[in-house]
Design brief:
421 residues; 46% strand; 3 domains; 8-stranded mixed β-sheet; mainly beta; DUF1618 domain-containing protein
């Protein structure tokens, strides 16, 4: 699907940006807080090809890897650590060291704006979303838990027309439905931890802060007196019944708002860890994957009910996925397929993660695949859930992991282009 101008209708944007000059029709220029000139360029590709943010600051001594925080329309919120006079130790770099920018990457309206005080607010990247309001205006919203409270939050809003922040404390006026299953008290399911943010939009500017393990907190951020309301997500029954630690939710769960409905996907992996053997190439434990499957749900009413999700509308097992014959030679060049191994066998043993529903409402789910746990080299798989066929495989790139504790070094953000929001 493409816009009338021939540009992609939506993007899979790599969360880790790149340093360098890639000037194009979307390039915008601005200044850092130290007065250095900076250039941002967005290389837009049609999914499954990842779109990429490039940052160029020729006057700086050092430019750290940019991080895309969120995308809405052609608006990109990103942060980057830029040093004017020395090369910092990246191990000690914090958000306070970063400059934050809102980048309007529309070819017809290219603007790069420094957000001067956002770095001092110490928001987690996952707590922030953007609401595009027409061609020129936007709202940045962050929802932060109040200290020592699981049921109150601080909503921080930045409106472009005033260029200032406002904050207010909000209780959850309409909590999500109580669990419909007995949940152990030693799990993280009893309080909300935001995994990512989705933008619904509409007259009152609805934004959802998603805990992919638990549920969504919705807020109409354009109302004079906004409130919070929750809806549940399908429970992670495998983790609940087995007692396994929940871990990073985006590894195995994803959600999108498509054509007025919520689409939710869950990846189930059958692994076998060998904790005594560390992989010499990655430095991480060896993870052997026996098989994996992905299931999808739809909530057309967005009701505050587990029943609104119903049963999975589709489940696809890796061992049952087929591909077109004319893709075999291409895939052999992209993936390290052994000469005596069938692609079906190879596919089910890949380490896959970060499922994301397509915004085209075509039944496609995108996944990140690696041959080893936390390997720097990765691919994006486009899987058609309706036909159980692999549509395409494209390289996601070689990603340098500077902080092994950063589990988001390979991920992507989804967002529609401005003409489709």
């Amino acid at each position: 699907m493409a816009t009338e101008a021939g540009h992609p209708a939506w993007f899979l944007t790599a969360a880790q940006g790149f340093v360098g000059d890639r000037s194009n029709e979307r390039t915008a220029t601005g200044f850092t807080r130290h007065g250095l000139s900076i250039k941002a360029s967005f290389v837009a590709n049609r999914p499954p090809q990842p779109s990429k943010l490039w940052v160029h600051c020729p006057e700086a001594v050092h430019v750290d890897t940019p991080r895309v925080i969120c995308v809405a329309g052609d608006l990109i919120l990103f942060r980057v650590d830029i040093s004017p006079d020395c090369v910092p130790d990246s191990r000690f770099s914090t958000r306070m060291d970063c400059d934050y920018f809102i980048y309007h990457a529309d070819p017809n309206l290219r603007v790069l704006t420094l957000l001067t005080d956002m770095r001092t607010r110490c928001f987690e990247d996952t707590e922030v979303g953007i609401l595009s309001r027409g061609l020129h205006q936007y709202t940045i919203a962050a929802l932060v838990p109040c200290p020592l409270s699981f049921h109150k939050y601080e909503l921080h809003l930045f409106h472009s027309e005033t260029s200032s922040w406002t904050s207010m404390e909000l209780p959850v006026a309409k909590p999500q439905q109580e669990f419909d299953w007995v949940i152990p008290f030693n799990t993280d399911l009893y309080y909300h931890t935001t995994s990512n943010v989705i933008t619904i939009g509409g007259e009152y500017g609805t934004i959802g802060w998603v805990d992919l393990w638990r549920g969504i907190l919705f807020c109409d951020v354009l109302r004079e007196k906004p409130t919070l309301s929750g809806i549940p997500l399908p429970l992670p029954m495998e983790q609940i019944t087995s007692g396994h630690h929940l871990g990073r939710a985006m590894d195995c769960r994803g959600i999108a708002f498509v054509n007025g409905c919520l689409k939710f996907v869950q990846l189930d992996i059958i692994p076998s860890y060998d904790t005594d053997i560390m992989d010499p190439e990655t430095g991480y434990p060896t993870l052997l994957v026996d098989d994996w499957a992905i299931s999808s749900w739809i909530n057309p009413t967005m009701e505050n009910s587990y029943k609104a999700w119903g049963e999975p509308e589709c489940t696809v097992q890796a061992a049952g996925i087929t591909i077109k014959t004319d893709m075999i030679s291409h895939l052999t060049g992209v993936l390290q397929l052994a000469s005596d191994e069938s692609f079906a066998d190879y596919l089910q043993h890949l380490v896959v993660s970060d499922p994301s529903p397509s915004l085209d409402d075509d039944g496609v789910v995108y996944l990140i695949a690696r041959e080893k746990l936390c390997h720097q080299k990765s691919w994006i798989l486009a899987l058609d859930m309706n036909t159980k066929k692999l549509q395409s495989v494209v390289p996601f790139g070689i990603v340098k992991v500077e902080d092994p504790s950063d589990s988001d070094f390979v991920k992507y953000c989804t967002g529609r282009s401005s003409s489709n929001t």
